[in-house]
Design a protein that fits this description.
alpha/beta, five-stranded mixed beta sheet, three-stranded antiparallel beta sheet, 5 helices
């Protein structure tokens, strides 16, 4: 996003402004910039980490395999075994963020873990901001038993 914001500092200030408008901020505890973005804001902060037990949610027992990555999602009495068909450390962080968001929205950990077992693609058709909320029109598609199935489509 530096093409628009020009400097990393400008980008961080813009993100901080977005976080000041929300009720809940979900941040990467392992990234110092994430912590800076919520400093001084009054929103609830939910954090995730692949390295620290001090975050709200953590990845434990991370296992990298030829066909993906697995880990235990742990926090607030929750434990869910997450198995992903894409490998790499970035996948762990992307999944931690997605699972943290879903948990914050009230989705049960077992439903999340089940949904993440399958290769997924997401298409965002449009987005709008209304009363400090961001609304996406999107479709999430999973490959289940070699058949594409729409698992979520927003209205």
């Amino acid at each position: 996003h530096l093409d628009y914001h020009k400097t990393l500092e400008n980008y961080l200030l813009a993100k901080k402004k977005l976080f000041s408008m929300c009720k809940t901020a979900i941040i990467n505890y392992d990234d110092q910039a994430g912590k800076r973005m919520v400093e001084g804001n009054n929103c609830e902060v939910v954090s995730y980490s692949a390295e620290s037990d001090d975050a709200t949610y953590s990845a434990k027992g991370i296992t990298y395999k030829a066909d993906g990555v697995e880990f235990e999602f742990v926090g607030f009495g929750l434990i869910g075994r997450i198995k992903l068909s894409t490998g790499g450390r970035f996948t762990v962080y992307n999944a931690l963020c997605a699972v943290s968001c879903a948990i914050s929205l009230g989705v049960p950990i077992m439903a999340i873990a089940e949904a993440l077992r399958f290769p997924v693609s997401a298409t965002i058709f449009s987005a709008r901001i209304e009363k400090n909320l961001i609304f996406f029109k999107a479709q999430i598609t999973a490959r289940v038993a070699n058949k594409q199935e729409s698992v979520f489509r927003s209205k």
